[in-house]
Amino acid sequence: MWVLRLSILVGRVSEVRADLVPDDLWERVAPLLPPAPERRHRHPGRLRVPDRTALAGVLFVLRTGVAWRDVPAEAVGCSGVTAWRRLRDWTEAGVWPRLHAALLTELRRAELLDLDDCAVDGSHVRALKGGTTSAPHPSTAPAPVPSTT
């Protein structure tokens, strides 16, 4: 009986993963990911979750907006914490700027990149030359309490 339940669960997990990370997306992302670290021989610990499964967890959070702790491990294939850690590692390794550049190159080659109508959001970019600053804002903190000594 438990074998049947396991096969149903495995079928469901691979189905969801295929939906979250289609083959064409995985073919673009996989070469950009850093190699997995070597496993220790003496105390190897748990098996590492495959990168595609972790990417499915990341995309699940992006698509649904759930908190990392609320990712359903049964449906995605890994916990939200595992997906978050892998996202952190990939961000530190510079995967996302390389993926962005690769996708832009692919769009340019196919002549599908049209920048005639575009919007640029610079609200998260630091003003390197100082920018304009307004007058200092008055403090909204309460006045210090007088000493009782």
Gist of the model:
Residues 127-149 are annotated as: Disordered. Helices cover 48% and strands 0% of the residues. The protein is built from 6 helices and no strands.
Structural descriptors:
single chain; 149 residues; mainly alpha; 6 helices; disordered N terminus; Transposase_6_like
Description:
It comes from Streptomyces humidus. InterPro entries: IS402-like_dom, Transposase_6_like. With 149 residues, the chain is mainly α. It has a domain of 96 residues. 48% of the residues lie in helices and 0% in strands. The protein has 6 helices and no strands. Helix 1 crosses helix 3 and helix 3 packs across helix 5. The termini are far apart. 13% of the residues are buried.
Topology, please?
Layout: H1 2-20, H2 23-29, H3 51-64, H4 73-76, H5 80-92, H6 95-109
Helix pairs in contact: 1-3, 3-5
Instruction: Give me the Rg, rounded.
Output: 23 Å
The mean pLDDT is 83
**β-sheet strand percentage:** under 5%
Secondary-structure element order, as H and E? Answer: HHHHHH
Q: Helicity, in percent?
A: 40-55%
Strand-pairing-aware structural class: mainly alpha
How does the major sheet shape up?
Answer: none
